[in-house]
Amino acid sequence: MKICVFGASSDTLAEEYYDAARRLGELMAKGGHTLVYGGGSDGLMRACADGVKTGGGAAIGVAPRMFDEGDFLRRDFGELIFTETMAARKELMRSIAEAFIVLPGGTGTMDEFFETLTLKQLGMQGKAIVLLNTLGYFDPLCALLRDMVARGFAGASMPEMIALCATPEEALKQALIPDRTGARSRADYNK
User: Fold this and answer.
1) Which residues of 109-123 are buried (b: 16+ CB within 10 A; e: fewer)?
2) What per-residue confidence (pLDDT) applies to 70?
3) Which of 42, 52, 80, 82 would staple 57 via disulfide (CB 3.0–4.6 Å)?
4) How many Å from the N-terminal Cα to the C-terminal Cα in the chain?
5) CA distance 166 to 109
């Protein structure tokens, strides 16, 4: 299975975040899964790719052409595909992927997560979305999502579209479940 992993590009995080990302990569390689990621040479993206590489797995990096300079991209492992824009990058990653695992990250990671979740809510994709909740990172986000539902800003089925997992093992297991039911079809929005 091709699994898209979103995550931070920072190299200044607590070591537990890198350990979890690396372990996820190792498990993906062991299971014969291909990593789809932003192709970055830093942060949790690098750690996950390191785990996949160590385990003898495969990776597909997708990056906008503007990142094709310096040492921003990982060139020593896997296939690297370039797009013209960030939007095209996200679209291509989503089209290649059969599931999504979101690692802790900043605004870029949150952008990728929310766009993927929105498409699921609209019935435009039915792939698993998993949050790897290392050190409880996603607890505040999940509280916000529950509050959105409670206040009527999101449908009650929205939390069912996401799996929150404490370990890389659990995250990979949940990613292999083909769909979190509850996504509304576009026809539902026309009622």
Assistant:
1) beebbeebbebbbee
2) 66
3) 52
4) 36
5) 18
